Amino acid sequence: MSASQQQKIMMLFSIGPVQEFIAQARRTRDLWFGSHLLSELSWAGAMAFQELGGKVVYPVLATNVGLDQGSAPNRILGIIGADVDPQRIAFNVRHAMSGVWMEHVKQARAQVKGLIKENTWDRQVADLIEYYAVWRRYDVDASSYAQTLAQVEHDMMARKTLRDFRQNEPGVLYGEVKSTLDGGRESVWLTPRHDVEAAKQQQQLLRLGVKKNEQLDAISVVKRIKTALSDQHTFPSVCEMAFRPFKQSLKEDSATSELAHAYQRQVNVYIKDKLSAGSMLNEPLDARLFYVRRVEEYIDEYTKGTLPEKVQWVQQIIQWLEELYRRIPEPTPYYAFIVADGDRMGHMLRSIQNDEQHITFSEKLSAFSAQAQQIIADCEGQLIYGGGDDVMAYVPVHTCLQAAERLRQAFQGKVSSNTTGQSATLSVGMVIVHMLEPLEEVRQWAQAAEKHAKQQRNSLAIHVHKRGGGDQLQMSLSFNHDPIGTLIGLLIDFRQGYFSTQLAYELRNLYITYRQLAKSSSWLNEDSVLHEVLYDEIRRLAIKKKPTLMSEELHQAFRTKLLGLFNGQGESSIVLLDPLLRLQQLTEQLILTIQLEEVRTAHEDIHPSPTP
User: Helix (H) and strand (E) counts for the chain?
Assistant: First the structure.
């Protein structure tokens, strides 16, 4: 056997910039296309590598795991024979990826022909993809697969520390308008020469999903146009996501449902009469008509922003909406954004001994990605990105806990070590936010929640960001302690009136008081003594804050449950926390329960008049 037959080449490819590209989004469909495009490029690169004679180890290209092209990770690992030129392979893989991107660019450019600065456009689209490739030779017969894998991972990290600095080619030296989505790039729109040309340009851009006076760079234009013209993906807005609990409640209340539909029919008859528009009377409820701040956007869809009577129309519709909300509850403006990531994936990869084991592990990750997509859909949410052990999605507040628990169960059920059989764990970060918060900030908050969960791993971290400030809760609970079951149980108790807001916040004051006392009181240094004192204090406060109409029997059962949570009863593993930490955890669970219910029943607190 020749030396080349005894050796193979392990190649690792990476594309980006992942987070920066996905983050440049004002709308959810921009966010989706950013992650979808990166997956599409990765898929094209993996297919090219396979066609060049390589074996793709990660991601799995087989279709039997149910993985689609929108769920491929941004990394490709493959094995190829030692008799090839790896540099040529790397170049061809890059060429395949670039071809996919340039096809999107070509299609988008055809839609904005005559509206863009050609030189600026060409410079920006050529400067998007960051592509890295590293490789190492290794002996097939030796037990060197794991070592080589660690080496190429290290090489990739080292390669990413080197940047390809290109000569700057600005359009003009000063005064160029910047993109509203990416301040590092200039807007590509041409300045209209006169009012007639400006009106014509605005009409064409509105048709493509570009708002009035919205300045976009070439990358953002491609995102916006591709999603606007796509027939395959209807991507819900955050407004629609926040509206879904209200729609669900209408299925259980026919009287409220009829009032809501009657209001929308009234609005559509009004618009139809004004514009001689086509029939809109039998359409499903449109979320925008049920939020004061979104009514104008609904009108713009039919008027294209050209009629001066628009302000009067919006005021009339808002008046009808306010009359409706005197008769029915308002929908919440809050939704949940989830970011999840597998724990100790590097440790599991280091236990892999050959490419076949690695492919088996990749199949497990791909199976989880396919199941994650179905889980989010079942929870009435939308998956933004699902590649390998990563998940990014947004869901309604009434299904957010269910989504987190099902993702955890799916990951543990699908992903396990090849050598030990031990199941992997998942850390989930969730942020609950108002639909008016900028998407870029929402994504950053969700990633901060994920990092919070990663501090102890196998955890759920929930951060609540209320609009306009207030009590911004941030807490992390181990999945070992069944946090979802506990929170759902407490939500039921709170809705039935078993405990009040006062109890939760007085327990928090109790925690703060004893935390200070414990620093200066020697007799509280013993956990057994402190536990007994806090146990009695919790029982005292629970009795003091007993709801007036609640029977003693029911309240006794609730007190037992509350004290059991403090003692750690029902936990799947014994974790010795000091009594103060247990009290803090109990307090945070109660307050989180209250805030989850508050955002579920919240409504727009400001009813602005439309800007003329």
Answer: 21, 10
